[in-house]
TrEMBL record:
Transmembrane segments: none annotated. This is Lytic transglycosylase domain-containing protein. It comes from Ramlibacter alkalitolerans. The keyword Signal applies. Residues 90-154 form the Transglycosylase SLT domain. The keyword Signal applies. The lineage of its organism: Bacteria, Pseudomonadati, Pseudomonadota, Betaproteobacteria, Burkholderiales.
Amino acid sequence: MRTPSSFVRFAAQSALAVACIAASVACPVAAHAGSAEATTAVHSYYERLRSQLRWVTVRVGQREVQTPDPGSRLLLTRAAAERAGLAEVGLDWRDVYGVISAETSWVPRAGMGRNGVTSEGLAQLEPATARALGVRNVNDPVEAVHAAARLLKEAGQWSARRIDGLRLAGAERAARLREGISIYYNLSSAARERWNGVSHPDLPVETQRHIENVRAGARQAERLAGGKLELPALPKATVQRVSTSPEAPSVVGTIEWSGSGSDADGRRSGKHVVWSNGSVTRESGGRVRWTSSTPSGPGDS
């Protein structure tokens, strides 16, 4: 387990690693866009990044899955945000981290939306969305997080257009921009068009929770990085708290699991509380526990 100070060192190291990885593939991708060489360059980029990740095993019921450890999440989200160009729309790696936290709390799983369509992986991508984003394996954390970053850029561009006429500035604009991102990520094309940049006549409770959980996840990411990075302040959100002892983890948000995917057994559906130590607790008391690190990743044999 990394200490807080080691997370700060890892954050600095990850910035250098991201720059090196990006530099190694930038020219080939630019020179051969759309070609087999570009595909090979992207694959090489993913492999270089994947080789630097560390993994932890998560137990969900009777099933064990692997996911990047907290330090590796910092590296992965920074790389994905830089590659997607999120700075162009006023977003950064914390938003990527926040969305993954809101979708799955970094516990890869299968789910089902209100439309009856299944979703998979850390980013909870539906099949059509995954195809549109060029994702080959939605259950690969590296691909999934990069796809989420690309989708976030689309969402940021859409949200910015919706709020352009409101003449917002500073934290207020940042908050509205990110509210629109959750609406874009969660709602259908028709439903999202009802958001006018200020309010939505019938915003589902799941989307309201998503907005709060993305913000909570982004703040958690900054805490993991030691709070030493020079980043714009995030707008504050109200998150329900529970009493804890000094040693106990704190609540960082909630997620709603339908229990309709591969984890469906009726016992794990419903509302879950996400804790700062990476664990997830059902309101009825069931618990997802983090175990010790393992040397191999999801793609290893």
